[in-house]
């Protein structure tokens, strides 16, 4: 009966927002010769290469609103689908912190050409490369072409302390701190200088990606970006989470619980820095019985969510105002696709006009929840993420269709063992021991997935 109802479900056609006129992008011609390239409007580029955005999304009949779609993202069993394994590389940053790069396919599985497009992924709040929403994109993107995939390489940037990455300094991560993705991209571009780098971020990671792209401007090493379920205006969206009883008691507390558990796992590591304000704040947040996201951020993130300056912030609301990405969106200078659902219970304020930025295509579905977009498959009980379709189409379009762009990329050099960008000495990274093989479906037990 449920399958029959699903057949009657109204198709949700995304609303697409472009600046008028949209930017023109340089696309490849019949050959890779620069002489064969031509200019095409971003709107035409998306329309011709991302048909799923125009064909629509049909939500599974039993996941008919944003709360149910979001809940299924958390409690659904995705261990049997989208299996992705990785090789992990650990990077040490100048402040002593550690970030983890998980690369797929593993080197013992197959070898890819050096110019293979690379999908650089930023995960959500307390996620990592194991998250089902990450694997839902990387599985089709990194499956060999002869098996129906794109044949790309995927590299997930796991934030400090997430997905088993150790905490080695009294600094965490946040929605606004971009230096870790900056050095990660620096490392990836140095290792694969011939490969086009395509950025995609989910939720908090989408916010970080948007800010990074905006800050880099014409010097960006990524040739395109995609933001999925980005929280954009952190002040307004956090305020709505606080003001509504249901959102506060379910979503704000669930996210805070994840962060609280994550801090508990690293309390011993942080104890090695007894005089740091972050370490001193940990016992209070660990003892809290009813913690919301804003209370956690007011105690922990506004102190240790990034380097100084601008951290620490007086309150979480000062941090939210600084870290928001909605106003930064106007400064992005690479082709950029944003996808949000109107019924997302966590993200309810969407900057669809993108500050008039002609490089942005902003797609909004009526349904889908937060990192959900589940639709019924061909058989009863088969549920898949619709959002994988337009995202993979976008990755194929920008990875294979764009011609080389004129960008002002700064050269790199190695100073005292750290890879740095010439002219900038405050950030850098180097590989350190650790890492190994990572099985994506195993995940990080004890934390709610999908947030």
UniProtKB/TrEMBL annotation:
Belongs to the AB hydrolase superfamily. AB hydrolase 4 family. InterPro entries: AB_hydrolase_1 (IPR000073), AB_hydrolase_4_sf (IPR050960), AB_hydrolase_fold (IPR029058), ABHD4 (IPR012020). Keywords: Hydrolase. SUPFAM superfamilies: alpha/beta-Hydrolases. The active site is at 203 (charge relay system), 344 (charge relay system), 370 (charge relay system). One of its GO terms (biological process) is medium-chain fatty acid biosynthetic process. It comes from Wolfiporia cocos (strain MD-104) (Brown rot fungus). Gene3D superfamilies: alpha/beta hydrolase (3.40.50.1820). Residues 117-374 form the AB hydrolase-1 domain. GO terms for molecular function: acetylesterase activity; monoacylglycerol lipase activity. This is AB-hydrolase YheT.
């Amino acid at each position: 009966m449920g399958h029959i109802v699903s057949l009657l479900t109204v198709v949700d056609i995304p609303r697409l927002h472009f600046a008028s006129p949209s930017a023109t992008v340089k696309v490849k011609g019949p050959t890779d010769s620069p002489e064969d390239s031509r200019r095409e409007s971003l709107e035409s580029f998306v329309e011709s290469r991302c048909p799923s955005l125009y064909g629509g999304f049909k939500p599974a009949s039993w996941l008919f609103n944003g709360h149910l779609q979001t809940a299924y993202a958390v409690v659904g069993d995705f261990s049997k689908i989208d299996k992705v394994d990785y090789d992990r590389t650990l990077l040490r940053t100048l402040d002593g912190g550690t970030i983890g790069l998980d690369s797929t396919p593993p080197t013992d599985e197959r070898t890819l050409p050096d110019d293979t497009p690379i999908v650089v992924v930023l995960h959500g709040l307390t996620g990592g490369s194991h998250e089902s929403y990450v694997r839902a994109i990387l599985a089709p993107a990194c499956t060999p072409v002869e098996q129906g995939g794109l044949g790309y390489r995927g590299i997930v940037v796991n934030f400090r302390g997430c997905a088993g990455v150790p905490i080695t300094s009294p600094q965490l991560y946040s929605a606004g701190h971009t230096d870790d993705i900056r050095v990660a991209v620096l490392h990836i571009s140095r290792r694969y200088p011939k490969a086009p780098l395509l950025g995609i971020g989910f939720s908090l990671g989408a916010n970080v990606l948007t800010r990074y792209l905006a800050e880099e401007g014409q010097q960006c090493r990524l040739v395109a970006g995609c933001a999925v379920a980005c929280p954009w205006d952190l002040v307004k969206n956090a305020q709505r989470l606080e003001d509504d009883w249901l959102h506060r008691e379910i979503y704000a507390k669930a996210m805070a619980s994840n962060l609280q558990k994550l801090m508990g796992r690293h309390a011993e590591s942080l104890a090695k820095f007894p005089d740091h304000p972050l370490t001193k704040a940990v016992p209070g947040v660990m003892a809290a019985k009813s913690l919301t996201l804003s209370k956690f951020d007011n105690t922990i993130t506004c102190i240790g969510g990034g380097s100084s300056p601008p951290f620490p912030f007086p309150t979480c609301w000062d941090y939210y105002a600084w870290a928001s990405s909605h106003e930064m969106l106007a400064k992005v200078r690479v082709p950029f696709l944003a996808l949000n659902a109107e019924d997302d219970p966590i993200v309810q304020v969407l900057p669809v006009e993108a500050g008039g930025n002609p490089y942005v295509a902003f797609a909004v579905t009526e349904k889908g929840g937060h990192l959900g977009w589940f639709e019924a498959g061909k058989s009863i009980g088969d549920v898949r993420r619709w959002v994988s379709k337009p995202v993979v189409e976008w990755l194929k379009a920008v990875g294979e269709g764009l011609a080389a762009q004129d960008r002002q990329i700064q050269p790199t050099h190695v100073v005292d063992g750290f890879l740095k960008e010439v002219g900038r000495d405050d950030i850098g990274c180097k590989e350190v021991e650790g890492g190994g093989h990572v099985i994506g479906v195993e995940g990080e037990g004890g934390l709610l997935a999908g947030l």
